[in-house]
Structures are given as structure tokens and as C-alpha cells.
Amino acid sequence: MVYSNTLKPVALSFLIAVALVLKCMPASAQSTETLTVAGGCFWCVEADFEKVKGVREVVSGYTGGTTKNPTYRDVTKGGTGHLEAVEIQFDPSVVSRKRLLSMFIRSIDPTDAGGQFCDRGKSYSTAIFVSNDAEQALAEQIKAEAQAELGKRIVTPILPAAPFYAAEAYHQDYYKSSKLVLTRAGPKSKASAYKFYRKACGRDAKVKELWGSAAPFTGS
Description:
Peptide Methionine Sulfoxide Reductase, Chain A
């Protein structure tokens, strides 16, 4: 009887511990949310947001169009309807969707409907993608606040979420890759080529001109 009575509390404690673990698992599974935005060159948007605390992963890709499984060549050539975009996976207990949207709108030129900086054409235009009424309302709020702050009309549209297609592997984490690529200045690592492109394209200079100290990213 002593042996049996000793086991009962141990077994009960074990069951309680298992129940607590199982109870916490759904919360953990739901702790990652996704924000999809288009801000011109996806290398730049990926580089910016991967540095934000609470962001778990940023994937470069294509969305907003009708062509299934598009390639980079398809999208840049035109006719697919897709934009270069990123999926930002984040922990909402660390960084809010509102905060990320506020940072995004101030990291682009939302007054330009023809592309972004030196990249021209529909595939480089900006957009915020939403999945429900709450996300729609939040995006509209952020857009209105930014427009009042900027004092200029913001043309970045808020669009319904559409299938997202990850870009080719060589586009992912382009900004920090040591792999060599051939540029006009000769062979360079992707990281070096990215820095040269970003500066030459005038992205940071234009963002600073528009947003001043409110610009969240410079020289990423």
C-alpha cells in the first residue's frame, strides 16, 4: 500500500505536467503571424526586416498576379500581374503588425506609382496585402497616418492576399551571401553587389529625403 500511495502523487504530477505542455502547444503554434508587402526590390525589403527584433523569417517572392509558379524572368518581363514581394513571419508578442506596417510605409516611396527608385515597372510597385477586415482596417489606418505625416498623397494600394510564390533560391538572403557574381565592376560577392546596387539605386537617399528621421532603415 505504501508503494501504491507513493506512485499516485507522482503519476498525478506527471499527468498535470503533460496537460500543461499540451495546453501551451497551440499557443506556440499560433505565435507566428505573416505580413506580406511589396516594396520594390525584394532584396532590400528582406534585408531591412530581417534585422527587426521579433521577425523570425523573411522570404522573397512574387504575389498579386495570375500566373502560377512564376519565375523571376516571367515577373520582370511583365504580363504576370505579380509584384516582387516579401512574406514577413513575426512573433506578435514581440513586434506588432501595426509596428511592422508603420516601418514598411516609411521605408519606401509610397507616392510613386511607377515602381521604386531606379527600378521601374509594375513588378516593382508597392502594395500591402491583407487577409481579413481587421488587417484591412489596420492597413488603412497606417496609410492615413503616414499620409498626414508626409503631407503627400500615398498611392500604395491595400490588396487582398493572393497566393505567394517564393523566389528562386539565389534571391533569398542575397544581401549577406558571399557567393561571387559578375557585375559591371567585375566579380563581387552578392553582399558587396547588393550594397553597390542599393546605393546606386538611391533607395536610402530618397527615403531620407521623404521621411527624415522617421525612416527606420538606412544603409541596410
